[in-house]
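If your schedule permits, I should be very grateful for your opinion on a structural question. The matter concerns a single protein, recorded as an amino acid sequence and a row of backbone structure tokens. Could you please explain, in whatever detail you think fit, how the structure tokens follow from the sequence? I set the record out below, with my sincere thanks for your time.

——
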Amino acid sequence: MLKHFFTLAVLIVVLSCNLSGCVEARFELSSESRLPKWFDIPEGMSRDELRVTVDYYIKSSGGEAVFKLYGDNGTRLKKVKGEMGIYPLQLKNPPEGSPENYPMYEIVIVDGVTDVIEHRERSNIFHMTNEPAILEEFGIRQ
């Protein structure tokens, strides 16, 4: 009986992830990074007072990124969803001294606006990049 219950529970989780997507990973924007293009600094605030997180979801139709912008008191100011590829991209010639398999990049599109996430190393911190050589390699026009 317990074995059947466990099997049913696993099946329900797998099916729900397939339909709605499951969080693959959660990251926080480096305080030294610029904000993603779809977020503006609210009037009366500074970049130092803001925090951004991103959750990656893998769905059968591709990837989704959910960004949340928070004020310094922890209040969520904005939430947006974007489309992304299933797999991260890597440079043909990564910078010398980079950790193995890094940096990795995610191209995300929110409401028609494209921006690029950079993961410099294995950690929960990400950066936004607008390095011309990186954008050019991935075929992104500014």
User: Anything to note?
Assistant: The first helix runs from residue 2 to 20. Helices lie at 2-20, 132-137.
